[in-house]
Amino acid sequence: MPAVSPLSTGLFETHVQRARTFLSEGKADLAEKDLAEAYLLKPRDVNVLSLLGVLYFKQGRLERAEEVFGKLAASSPNDAAILFNLGLINFKLNRFREAELAFTQALAYSSDKPRVHFYLAATYERHGRTREAIHQYRLARSASDHTGAFRQHGAQTTEIPRDLAADTEPPAGSNTKPIQAPLDNDFRGGDEDDEALFGASKLIQVPGADLQAKDHGPLPEAPVALRPEVLRLGSEEEDLFLAPRVPAVAPKMTLKRRDLLQIPFEGRIFFKRGALVSSEGHVTFWVKESKSTSGERLVIATGSGSLLLAAAGQGIGLLQSDQGRKLWVSPDRILACEDALQPRYVQIAAMEASVLEMDGNGYAALTWKGLPTCLRVHPDQPFEGPLSKVIAWSGSLEAEMGLSPTGDEPTLFIAGEGEVLVEGE
To answer: N or C: which end of the chain has fewer CB within 10 A?
Structure first.
């Protein structure tokens, strides 16, 4: 077998380094060209294959990414980070049994067991195996108490910057091979304001005391459970879309007071940070690690129990989503939402802030001061109104933000076919 010339070796390393740089800068096309050249020189090189897997993942070519990491896992069956990445890709492809197998194998070799337990729990949850999911969430909590949740990736890796999901180089003179950095920092989204709440960036465990509400007033000694108002968008009812009948799936949420909501749950639920009054049962709280001055938005509660949430003196109602249409909610209006709604933050055109997009069957708990009114939107009758009065909207709609003629506050423009829920006086 002919020896590899120093010239070829130097050229190969140049292509690999440039590809890594291009990937970190988001220049996937340029990275792909360099990786193609490097692959021609060393088609079995672990660095090249790992970078190709990352490239395919970033491009959304998940089948190709799964193929690459599958081959890497076959040749390196004890590499926890490769197995972890393989699990994440299969999770995103909704191949939950394959994801379960990869995560389970990763547990045997990973020193970052909280992270693996957490994603294995999510896999079970998506697959409808609720009890196993709760068990894994508890293992994630227990393991994080000893290792620090989600701080390291794999047995020998160190934390990788979010913008560089690529290989780590072994220390000089070391016999340790490069280990692929996990993909979960880029999982299900890139931009921080356009990413799924779950798995989009590192999660950290927080004590419930750090999330508790302030100024919610004394709790009544014997609160009476009330049925909160249930609103539905997208029905054929008249102007105000208050549910005229008992919903097909009755909400479990109950009002203990006009501004206090109790939510029993099993699995996972999202709620606004700073709204927690108390919790019961086996509940673990996670928040997204803050990447900007805006801080965290929603908290993820996992386990089995109930939460008591306060709405800072505002009224609480439920918005039911069961029409098979997307629902958008103003972030300052959300108090809690069920995991079945698959919440995610998306950017609005010409708007610096994000809105919460939901797509699924379930309930979202919202807050308001005045009684909400539902306005229909048609192609020849768009909506224009102050952002502070808009609670939610649903349908085939496009929204963008601008300034009102007076310049007093931002105005929301919504066009298309659907409904807009606004706060009354």
So the answer is: N
Does residue 205 lie within any of the structural domains?
yes
- Say if residue 222 is exposed, middle or buried (CB neighbours under 10 Å; 0-12, 13-18, 19+): exposed
DSSP string, 324-361: SS-EEE-GGGEEEEEGGG--EEEEPBT-SSEEEEE-SS
* Residue 30 counted as domain residue: no
265 residue type, one letter: F
Closest by CA position to 57, among listed 89, 33, 101:
89
Sign of the four-CA dihedral 97, 98, 101, 103: negative
Backbone φ and ψ of 255, nearest 5°: -85, 130
Number of domains in the chain: 2
CA 18 – CA 104 distance, rounded (Å): 34
At CA 308, angle to CA 306 and CA 309, rounded to 5?
Answer: 130
- Please tell me whether residues 411 and 263 are part of one structural domain: yes
Most confident of 38-42, 275-279, 358-362: 275-279
**Residue 59 sits in the same domain as residue 149:** yes
The C-alpha atoms of residue 124 and residue 356 are separated, in whole angstroms, by 25
pLDDT at position 42 is 84
139: closest CA among 228, 147, 37? 147
pTM strictly above 0.70: no
Which CATH number does the domain housing residue 373 bear? 3.60.160.10
DSSP β-bridge partners for residue 265: 305
Q: What is the pLDDT of residues 278-310, one digit of tens each?
A: 999 888 888 876 554 445 678 989 888 999 999
Counting Cβ atoms within 10 Å, is residue 84 exposed (0-12), middle (13-18) or buried (19+)? Answer: buried
Phi first, then psi, for residue 222 (nearest 5°) are: -135, 75
Contact of 314 with 299, CB cutoff 8 Å: no
322 and 349 co-located in one domain: yes
**Same domain? 291 vs 320:** yes
In CATH, what number is assigned to the domain containing residue 65? 1.25.40.10
DSSP 81: H
